[in-house]
Specification:
Shape: elongated
Structural class: alpha/beta
Oligomer: single chain
Distance between the termini: 44 Å
Number of strands: 11
Largest sheet: 11 strands, mixed
Radius of gyration: 20 Å
Strand order of the largest sheet: 3-2-1-4-5-6-7-8-11-9-10
Low-confidence stretches: 125-131
Order of helices and strands: EHEEHEHEEHEEEEEH
Number of helices: 5
Length: about 230
């Protein structure tokens, strides 16, 4: 897979290193000569250019990329790069870094963003996830379909404790994707039973999050399964 990363700062270089270790082809783009540190990521391709310029992206052969990551420290730049990558070059997957959470609402399909990653929001979510039981925690937002990756730790008193996954009447537009039980990561089947203390990861439409939280947090004695 070929990946272009706009922004060769600490974030961009770190992403590049991970992708290279996993066998992907990586191009780092930055307009600042001081950011071009080939010795730090020697296996990557490097391009000294402004990623907001069409001529630069032509030189980068962005149309050959499977993924573009806009990872600069400037939200305006990340939005422009995302929009150009999607509309001018038809890049299948565009991931954009959100530096200021107040700008997160802009990082959507209209700007060519498939996945927006807000570091401040993610750090806050991880803190919440560590201390919250029974509360839904939003980990990641997907632009397409207005869906989010959310997590909830099933509380001890949950009515779903001991219930088979296949017997739960899940809200529409939600999908249970992973159960984390202690040190195990489970791909849930219809026959698996939920247990108190399970960390449940869902992809869910934003307008279904309230229903999902109510379902998972409902105390014993309510009607939650069928």
């Amino acid at each position: 897979m070929r990946v272009a990363i706009a922004g060769a700062g600490a974030v961009g270089r770190s992403i590049a290193g991970e992708l290279l270790e996993n066998g992907h082809e990586v191009l780092l783009i930055d307009k600042a000569p001081t950011a071009i540190s080939v010795e730090r990521v020697p296996m990557a391709e490097w391009l000294l250019a402004d990623a907001c310029e069409i001529t630069s992206l032509d030189e980068a052969a962005l149309q050959r990329c499977n993924v573009v990551i806009a990872a600069t420290g400037d939200d305006k730049v990340n939005l422009v790069v995302s929009l150009l990558a999607k509309t001018e070059y038809g890049v299948p997957r565009v991931v954009a870094r959100v530096n200021n959470p107040k700008n997160e609402w802009l990082f959507n399909e209209a700007w060519g963003v498939d996945v927006a990653v807000s570091t401040p929001r993610l750090m806050s979510a991880l803190v919440e996830e560590a201390v919250s039981v029974g509360d839904l925690v939003r980990l990641l937002r997907f632009s397409h379909g207005d869906a989010n990756l959310v997590e909830l730790t099933l509380p001890e008193e949950s009515a779903l404790d001991g219930t088979r996954v296949g017997d739960v009447q899940w809200p529409e537009d939600t999908s249970l994707v992973t159960i984390i039980r202690g040190t195990r990561v489970l791909a849930p089947s219809q026959e698996d039973s939920l247990e108190a203390g399970d960390e449940l990861l869902f992809v869910a439409a934003q307008d279904r999050e309230g229903q999902l939280e109510d379902l998972l947090s409902a105390r014993r004695g309510g009607s939650t399964a069928g």
